[in-house]
Recover the amino acids of this structure.
């Protein structure tokens, strides 16, 4: 198997401190998850066309603006995936959800990143049945990737 695209992590927000983000753990989880994401590819995958994938951390305000611009929903969301290889993650939403569920923040960030990668791999969560199937695949990949981390 080829090594795949380069993963670029960009922190464009200030609400969550870098020390809290512990991006190294999220990065390691995504590197571990990559082979499983490739195995899960389905019709519509763009993974083979991408020389790099960017994970961009933003604030709730920024992701809400993107959500409104591209999906006509002005509310913040956890992750938005663009098929050119950019995955936008809300650091504030990740922190809030991690606290709510008693999880480490890097685990929640990795969850959003895996979700975005699955969209690039051809998965859709537009229909309720498809959403639950995608979530099951996402959590299986995440469990394996997080073993011994966080």
């Amino acid at each position: 198997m080829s090594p795949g695209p380069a993963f670029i992590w960009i922190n464009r927000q200030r609400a969550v401190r870098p020390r809290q983000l512990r991006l190294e753990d999220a990065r390691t989880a995504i590197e571990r998850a990559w082979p499983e994401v490739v195995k899960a590819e389905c019709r519509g995958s763009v993974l083979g066309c991408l020389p790099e994938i960017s994970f961009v951390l933003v604030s709730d305000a920024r992701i809400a603006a993107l959500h409104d611009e591209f999906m006509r929903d002005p509310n913040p969301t956890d992750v938005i995936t663009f098929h050119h290889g950019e995955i936008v993650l809300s650091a504030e939403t990740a922190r809030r959800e991690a606290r709510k569920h008693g999880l480490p923040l890097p685990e929640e960030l990795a969850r959003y990143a895996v979700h975005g990668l699955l969209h690039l791999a051809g998965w859709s969560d537009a229909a309720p049945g498809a959403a639950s199937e995608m979530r099951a695949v996402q959590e299986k990949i995440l469990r394996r990737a997080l073993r011994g981390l966080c």
About this structure: The radius of gyration is 14 Å. The mean pLDDT is 95. The chain has one domain: 6-146. Residues 128-146 form the longest helix (19 residues).
